[in-house]
Specification:
Alpha-Beta Plaits, 3 domains, 9-stranded mixed β-sheet, 4-stranded antiparallel β-sheet, 6 helices, alpha+beta, Structural Genomics Hypothetical 15.5 Kd Protein In mrcA-pckA Intergenic Region, Chain A, 19 strands
């Protein structure tokens, strides 16, 4: 059986995050075959692995969900000031899921939730230029000049970077779709603001080959079959 680092194994078993697993190991709360685990050690899962004396269940099958994040829901696992956390919508599942690319509180739409940390890392690599598609409504009239500015890239002074060229398609007088290949913090809102426009609503409708489809706010569906296989192939897995 393939081996992996103890922190990754604990994360794949749904015990905690890799960082939290490192802390558990460092404080002597993890044992492997009765002996204290050490940072960086590798295990296969055939060993008797315990946390605080309790045996750890084996690695679970990885899952991926497409979720329609409603406006007002915060992408975080812990936030004392948030009214609603995205993890609340997955509390009924045995796996510990996290998001692959967050959406800010005021935005809505497709959020991918998974317990596959390697998939998340592969998707978040900016050099891979994975596509994400959004539908945006602004307060002002959508002019050809504004479309041109957005498509050619916008300098964001507060971040000190110029955005990559992107694709923009008119959908109405104030509505357009935008396909990005990078994921800067609040990128679309910052881009529009830098061009003198103000975002009224922002919805993500696609991440790579996974689409929001007919999902309604708060609903989820499991990504599987050919859709899942295509996603994994796209990230080289």
């Amino acid at each position: 059986m393939e081996s992996c680092r103890i922190n990754k194994y604990l994360a794949e078993c749904g015990v905690c995050s890799r960082r939290e697993a490192d802390s558990l190991v460092q404080t002597g709360r993890v044992t492997v075959n009765g002996a204290a685990a050490v940072p960086g050690m590798k295990v296969t899962g055939e060993e008797t692995i315990c946390v605080d004396g309790a045996p750890v269940a084996g690695r679970q099958e990885k899952v991926l969900y497409a979720f329609y994040k409603p406006v007002g829901v915060t992408c975080s696992e812990k936030d004392a000031h948030a009214e609603h956390l995205v993890t609340e919508y997955f509390a009924d599942l045995p796996q510990r899921l996290t998001y692959a690319g967050r959406l800010d509180k005021d935005s809505e739409g497709l959020l991918l939730m998974t317990d596959d940390g390697d998939l998340i890392q592969s998707m978040m690599k900016g050099a891979m230029r994975h596509e994400k598609e959004y539908v945006v409504t602004i307060r002002e009239e959508l002019t050809p000049e504004l479309i041109g500015k957005l498509e050619h890239g916008v300098y964001l002074p507060d971040l000190g970077v110029k955005t990559r060229p992107c694709r923009v398609k008119r959908r109405g007088e104030r509505e357009f779709s935008m396909i990005l290949t990078q994921g800067l913090n609040r990128q679309i809102r910052r881009m529009c603001k830098a061009c003198g426009a103000h975002v009224v609503s922002l919805k993500r409708i696609r991440v790579m080959n996974v689409k929001l489809g007919d999902l309604q706010p708060g609903e989820r569906r499991r990504v599987e079959g050919e859709e899942l296989e295509t996603l994994y192939r796209s990230v080289g897995r």
